[in-house]
């Protein structure tokens, strides 16, 4: 009887340990709010893909923390001197979650899935892909595309098993998704959560990966749009990590004994476009005056508690194309701001507002209804007032403001973008995209020439970088915007439960981050 | 009675088409279009035109409406442009959550509202009457968003009794149901109270008192029964609210639902989803009104007699 009781106790203890161990391998994470509501894990034919896509699938190329390209499924690659061909050597031994081997023919079949989809533009410059050997594939180009590596590294270039893709048809990515990534899709409930389980065969991680499977066994990605709710889930232990902590909650997270924050370089930029077709911003001197009136450092310190960077150009600072000559950087300079406004004929009035021919220098500053933009715009409003520009805040719903820009009635606005490639310059300043996205309404022949050279004129990445630097510098010389702020990505996590990677060799917390994430014993 | 039912159903047909025209026109009059949400940095103006043509948005509005309505009448709600799923599938996924949450909240607010209204009417003019009615009125004035967060702080964070958010298991329904239900209680309580006070003055009630019937029996078996007729009508009218009126609560508690689907699709200008969701809500209101009328006819002999 005694023996039986001991056995029972031992069995119970072992069982409990096993249960705890199983529990310890599970992590629940709240996705960033802008990823809430994705309806499938189909990277080929969808316009929005959440973080789970980075985990279910791999791409040929990945990026490290400096936005340099590193191998993922492609071990190495060579660009032809004339830019008309790229040859990729693939990693051996890679298999999809269903056991299908990944080889050169897979890449050929995968590329054939894109024509006719919204993401076809990624491979516009590719004429065809052809198999060189079992592990070598060549992209034959219609024209040189130095941006090809970037396109191959985006989430929309994630590689599903072409056979599984064809078999599932329109339902691909909803009930089943077959990739080569570090996690397999177990379940996906639209608008609620995605459950992923570890791919135990995974040995081909990107860049600095160890070549081992993920440490955690099971990952639940929850969709919570409301920041307060997400924070309370973290606080009560309902979830282990928030992939995006709004600035408002950082103090709360840091103040909790069991919680901590991880900061990564941001990929978004806050700026103030000025409509060059609307008075008074049709005068370059007024634009210059207002651009140099914005005190980026004060905004960084006062509004964002020092987290992030003061922006001085249009591109995020991790991009090489952001390294422009000092004379083209736009940073707070009240003397220059006042002088430019004086040169434009606007004289400071006794009430602190400039006037010209009896008219006051009064503008409407458009902003969005989110507290982030409201707070920021109030500071910008005060900074403009300091140089004699009276700005009236006009607030629009965040979802509706883009359509308001299409009326062309805006003068100046506070807005932001999220992008990690220099081609964002073309998106926001090309004369072919007036109203929106070219909110500044810039239509300048020299800018267009520089844009064409940067977008399609370069044969290799060095040429492209130089062309974009020139384009960036010229745009800044016309002051169609004022740079404001470069936010950081802030991840909140339960420090008593999770072990975060010591150094993350990736620009965002996705494939590599979740591969190295561990749970404390 | 059968003639009345058929007449009422036939009246819904022109209303349905009128509502569909209003919905379609309003959505297409809004600035912006769904293609904007499909384009990303790097896509060209030519690609925009190709996508516009692909989804038929370059056709005349009348043609687009006829195409949509023709498909709806054959049971095809179309495919979401931005969300890339069949609309029927998106709605079918959201609807059970809305029905469960809205249905339970309606039950909760009805039971609580009728009880509060009955007690208030029975002690009309007393401190109990004023306290209860003041309390439910105050509760209904508080925004759902605020009540929801307050409930999370009390019941989830401080007491740890319920999960903060989600839609898994009955525990996750408690706080959302309470949040929505408390908001609807005031209306039911007010209508119940007024109807009961009105009924209490009727001759048949005085007669029952004169016959010596116990006051509690009079209140519950006779007065409340009569007073419930307007309450039932109001409940039937609130069916549309059940389905689409819980947007803020769905957001706070991170629950899927028709309201959230509608708002998300509106923000994305995903026309097929918005049109289908609004049409379903409009049909729910129409059917609710019909049900209210039929229930009133069934419950109120005077109404029935007037039909003949």
TrEMBL record, chain A:
Gene Ontology molecular-function annotations: peptide transmembrane transporter activity
Compartment list: Periplasm
Signal peptide span: 1-24
Pfam families for the chain: SBP_bac_5
InterPro entries, per the entry: Peptide/Ni-bd, SBP_5, SBP_5_dom
Residue ranges constituting the Solute-binding protein family domain according to the UniProt record: 69-423
Biological process per Gene Ontology, one example term: peptide transport
Any one GO cellular component localisation term in the record: outer membrane-bounded periplasmic space
Keywords: Signal
4Fe-4S as UniProt keyword: no
Family statement drawn from the similarity comment of this UniProt entry: Belongs to the bacterial solute-binding protein 5 family.
PANTHER family (UniProt xref): PERIPLASMIC BINDING COMPONENT OF ABC TRANSPORTER
Listed name of the protein: ABC transporter substrate-binding protein
From TrEMBL, chain B:
GO CC, any one term: plasma membrane
Family: Belongs to the binding-protein-dependent transport system permease family.
Domain of life: Bacteria
InterPro entries membership: BPD_transp_1_N, MetI-like, MetI-like_sf
Name used for this protein in its record: ABC transporter permease
This protein's record includes keyword NAD: no
Keyword terms, alphabetized: Cell membrane, Membrane, Transmembrane, Transmembrane helix, Transport
Gene Ontology BP terms: transmembrane transport
Localisation per UniProt entry: Cell membrane
Residue ranges constituting the ABC transmembrane type-1 domain according to the UniProt record: 95-292
UniProt topology in membrane: Multi-pass membrane protein
Record field: transmembrane: 9-30, 99-123, 135-161, 173-192, 227-253, 273-295
UniProt keyword Membrane, yes or no: yes
Gene source species: Pseudotabrizicola alkalilacus
